[in-house]
Amino acid sequence: MGFKTGIVGLPNVGKSTLFNALTRTAAAQAANFPFCTIEPNVGDVAVPDARLAKLAGIAASKQVIPARMTFVDIAGLVKGASKGEGLGNQFLANIRECDAIAHVLRCFEDDDVTHVDGRVNPIEDAETIETELMLADMESIEKRLQNIVRKVRGGDKEAVQQERLMKAAMAALEDGKPARTVDVDAEDAKAWGMLQLLTTKPILYVCNVGEDEAGEGNAHSAAVAEMAAQQGAKSVVISAQIEEEIAQLEDEEATEFLAELGLEEAGLNRLIRAGYDLLNLQTYFTVGPKEARAWTIRTGTLAPQAAGVIHGDFERGFIRAETIAYDDYVTLGGEGPSKEAGKMRAEGKGYTVKDGDVLHFLFNT
Predict the structure, then answer these.
(1) pTM of the predicted protein model
(2) How far is Cα 359 from Cα 287, in angstroms, rounded to an integer?
(3) Radius of gyration over alpha carbons of the chain, in Å?
(4) For 11-24, how does the pLDDT look when each residue is reduced to its tens digit (9 = 90+)?
(5) 66 pLDDT exceeds 50?
(6) Alpha-carbon distances, residue 228 vs 92, 127, 174, 225 (angstroms)
(7) pLDDT in tens, 331-361
(8) Element at 246 (helix H, strand E)
(9) What's the CA dihedral at 302, 304, 307, 309 to 10 degrees?
(10) C-alpha to C-alpha distance for 55 and 60, rounded to whole angstroms
(11) CA distance readout (Å), 256 to 24, 73, 251
(12) For residues 223 and 121, what is the distance between their CA atoms, to the nearest angstrom?
């Protein structure tokens, strides 16, 4: 199960620099002019999790495979994108394919880096992109409502449901609110998701600050944090410049470099954790002598669906899951001792997987 986060923002806010750092590549050209990113660049990032190395050490696993999250560096947006200005149409199409939005906001002052609007105001920048996404959603809804008129008149249940949901979304948008503010019942959740409205995507605001402000942030990032809290969104402070420098270093050198700056960890770790929280994700593990591996699932996932992340056959032929809590596995020293201590449990189809579970699935072929 892959989770894709689109890195978006106005031109020259540090999107490509951050993407390069996150994926440790130079695939995205970072330059001081609008639209330097023409095609969306895609990169998989290993999710840092100290628990995985601990489990691998106990099981003497030959291979360690972390969970991964996909980041997409998407072309810079400008006002009028919803009408096709700049690279608007491409921007909107690319973001529609993502599960979440990491909205990079310029929170640093630098006269040498041009701002597309000639000023540094992350709140206004956020409003610019949100407005364009809302306008694009309104246009999309208007077209869809016109296309299903006949089906609605004919009493088609699916069309009637779509009309009701689209009208609810339109009411919110016309009131200046994104579609994610609409309360959707469980029975409507699938149909709601199929609308693929841009403003239903959860947002993580990434405050790109200067090197000296990477620890505590600044007045700009504080204002963004307040805005995010009001929206029920998330925000994280990061210095794309620092992350770019760290990306060029070996692990030990990177640790020393961060210590010199008074930072406990790389911004990547904070960004990943915030992204996990935003998407309601969690991790379970499979551990053995051949490999120790982390798997990403949504919080609340049942055992058969968790097994399906490994392979569809595991879900289709699911019999049961043998599970050991992470703390028990580590404290007792592995699968054998955990089983002897009665800490290995057999769970059926109704079991909700917990974060950190060490699982072994039994299934029919």
Answers:
(1) 0.81
(2) 8
(3) 23
(4) 888 888 888 887 76
(5) yes
(6) 22, 12, 21, 5
(7) 999 999 999 999 999 999 999 999 999 999 9
(8) helix 240-247
(9) -70
(10) 8
(11) 18, 29, 9
(12) 10
